[in-house]
Design brief:
The chain is mainly α. The chain has 29 helices and no strands. It folds into three domains: 310 residues, no CATH class; 168 residues; 136 residues, no CATH class. InterPro entries: PHBA_efflux_AaeB/fusaric-R (IPR006726).
Length: 684
């Protein structure tokens, strides 16, 4: 028995990896990649080389731009690649038109030309800050495509149309090559996409259910809830890519987004109930009354079922059990909160089932827009505008022969970094990847490319570094380096049909490339730099202002819109809070989570008041609450207790009793969250 056991352990990959030095283990992405990572790297490398060879066969003047496009649009999923390719083509076409317009408008006035170009690129970067996903990339692509074409046509403005057509041809060629290889490597995308979406939805439901159960039992820290929120927000932004892989016309993505929005609502409501049970007014009585509900609901959530239909049946049976409980009448406001939580679980499961089983002619739509950061958009636009003007000034003063290339590289780097949440942080690995790219490009340009005499040799020469770059792109720790390495390697070596870069041309081009990255990082640090502290203050003020506005009769913010905006802002801050003290981050997180829960209750009260289904006395009490809420005075001088008393003792029709319990539960939760003890806990 000893021999086989020892042999099995000796061949265990984890045991073998543990014996290696730490610096070798860090390279496991290179010597022991997963099959999916290796397939992605090899597929993309072949697509890039194929686009380069086709561009050279077509005798295009700058074939190196085709493989750059391949690396730009290549993504881990087919849907992401399709989305990025679509917006890249659209941005290229619009950028080509803008470049021709600028050249035609300022043919002999370089100062006016570069001022107009800087304003245009600044406008594109500012607009991209207000958009999501690859729509933002398409807009910044419009800006740097304009710069690349316009600077390339400065010396020969009469040929700007030819240059524009050539640049567009490279983009389309790269997109087609990447799509062709992806289709060959990933046939039958739709069934796999549906299975993957279902698995991710059930995984998100399981993780959220565990978090909700921990919240109700008082076992969870805010940091854990922040992680769960981050996963839900990231998943929500990727649903549209899964839609592109599925059958056209199905509402699978809309139902998936509705399920994720329901999970956000579950977290917010569970957070409020947990605060109610852990402290504040009548905490001991609330805990005693809630024991049965917590026990039943946590047992359901921790079950870990994978069949949404079976889980939905269990929810229905539990709802029937709760309706028959006599204890429900002893604490109606608290009971209503748990009934609402259970109904939320059932709603999420129904949306998951609808996503798994699409029906024809489904008219369901679900869209949630994220928060628009107007101030940061303005800062991003001003920063990009100043960078282009500064680069033009450098060219004007130094008369550098590579000045046009420097400006085009700078516009390209700015476009690639402008859509990042924190370009300063993203710029450092981007520059390091550029250094690796320059080093490998030096070896290829000086010793390998001069010895190549056939296309087959070029394939073998580029396949190894491109495959390594593809593997690095799939590893989280090296993805930032691979971002610049993969795209700019073919640009630096510049393979051509009739010649090659000599040493001087290569070094000048590489210097322009590296200087453009350094110049971009410098401007990001000096011109209205991104500050997480000021961003947190702006977000806190925005949340407080929006929270008060939820009570207005003309306000139409839905619960899902409110939660998505708050969660997105909170997750962004958590991702960029490395330099912020941990206690400050936790204090801010508690305040944001509290605001999310308060907002849900205020929206529910506003909607009930708008329906006007309750008696006049109750409607007047709710109108008083909403008016004082907008003034920021809802928690003063026992206002909430007085309003609760009016609502509780006002006679209502039997059919309106459930509506009144909803109102009482919301007022009860708001009173708990606004109590001095809870305010201090959220701001400590």
């Amino acid at each position: 028995m000893v021999g086989p056991v020892m042999t099995a352990r000796a061949h265990d990959p984890d045991t073998f990896s543990a014996l290696l030095p730490p610096f070798v283990r860090k390279l496991s992405w290179l010597y022991a990649p997963s099959l999916a990572d290796f397939a992605f790297a090899l597929r993309t490398a072949f697509a890039a080389i194929m686009s380069l060879l086709i561009a050279m066969w077509m005798e295009l003047d700058s074939p190196q731009w085709a493989p750059l496009t391949v690396w730009v649009v290549a993504q881990s999923s087919r849907g992401e690649s399709l989305a990025k390719a679509r917006w890249r083509v659209a941005g290229t076409l619009l950028g080509s038109v803008a470049a021709m317009t600028l050249i035609a408008a300022f043919p002999q006035a370089s100062g006016l030309f570069f001022c107009a170009l800087a304003l245009w690129i600044g406008l594109c970067c500012a607009g991209a800050t207000l958009l999501d996903n690859y729509r933002a990339y398409g807009l910044v692509l419009t800006g740097f495509t304009s710069a690349i074409i316009a600077t390339g046509a400065i010396l020969e403005p009469d040929h700007v149309f030819d240059i524009s057509v050539a640049r567009t041809s490279y983009i389309v060629l790269g997109v087609v090559c990447e799509a062709t290889l992806a289709i060959l490597f990933m046939p039958s995308v739709a069934p796999h996409a549906r299975q993957a979406l279902h698995a991710r939805l059930m995984g998100a439901f399981g993780n959220t259910a565990q978090t909700v159960a921990d919240l109700l039992e008082g076992k969870i820290a805010p940091a854990v809830m922040g992680t769960t929120l981050g996963e839900l927000v990231a998943f929500n932004s990727q649903v549209e890519f899964s839609e592109l892989e599925l059958e056209p016309g199905s509402r699978t993505g809309d139902h998936a987004r509705a399920a994720l929005a329901g999970l956000l609502a579950l977290l917010a409501r569970a957070r409020g109930v947990s605060l109610l049970l852990s402290g504040g007014v009548h905490a001991a009585g609330a805990r005693d009354a809630a024991q049965g509900y917590v026990r039943d609901l946590c047992a359901l959530l921790r079950d870990g079922g994978t069949d949404p239909a079976d889980m939905a049946g269990r929810v229905t049976r539990l709802q029937a059990t709760w309706r028959g409980r006599q204890a429900t009448q002893a604490h109606p406001a608290l009971a209503a909160l748990f009934v609402e939580l259970l109904a939320g679980v059932g709603h999420v499961l129904s949306e998951i089932r609808a996503s798994d089983n699409p029906v024809r002619h489904d008219r369901f739509r679900f869209r949630v827009t994220s928060r628009r950061h107007a101030i940061e958009a303005l800062e991003n636009g001003v920063r990009a505008c100043c960078a282009i003007l500064g680069a033009w000034l450098v060219w004007e003063v130094t008369a550098w022969r590579q000045g046009a290339a420097f400006i085009s590289f700078l516009a390209l780097v700015y476009g690639l970094l402008a859509t990042r949440e924190n370009p300063v942080i993203a710029g450092t690995p981007f520059f390091k990847g550029g250094l690796y790219c320059a080093a490998v490009g030096t070896v290829l340009a000086f010793w390998v490319i001069p010895a190549i005499t056939a296309p087959e040799m070029l394939v073998f020469a580029l396949l190894v570094p491109m495959t390594i770059g593809g593997l690095a792109a799939r590893n989280a720790a090296t993805a930032g380096y691979a971002f610049s390495f993969n795209m700019f390697l073919p640009v630096l070596i510049g393979p051509m049909n009739q010649g090659r870069y000599d040493e001087v041309a290569f070094l000048n081009g590489t210097l322009a490339f590296l200087c453009s990255i350094l110049f971009a990082i410098l401007t990001y640090r000096m011109v209205v730099p991104f500050s997480i502290d000021s961003h947190m203050r702006r977000t806190a003020a925005w949340t407080a202002r929006r929270l008060r506005g939820l009570g207005a009769g003309r306000n139409h913010t839905t619960p899902h819109q409110w939660l998505a905006a708050c969660a997105g802002s909170l997750v962004r801050i958590l991702r960029n809070s490395a330099t912020v003290p941990a206690d400050m981050v936790e204090r801010y997180m508690r305040a944001e989570l509290r605001a999310m829960t308060l907002g849900l209750s205020v929206i529910a009260l506003r909607d009930v008041a708008r329906r006007n289904d309750l008696p006049p006395a109750t409607q007047q009490a709710m109108a008083l609450f909403l008016r004082r809420w907008q003034q920021g005075r809802a928690g003063e001088h026992g206002t909430l207790r007085m309003i609760e008393g009016r609502v509780a003792h006002a006679p209502v029709a039997p059919q309106a009793e459930q509506e009144r319990q909803v109102v009482l539960s919301c007022l009860y939760l708001v009173r708990t969250l606004l109590s001095p003890g809870e305010k201090e806990a959220s701001s400590e």
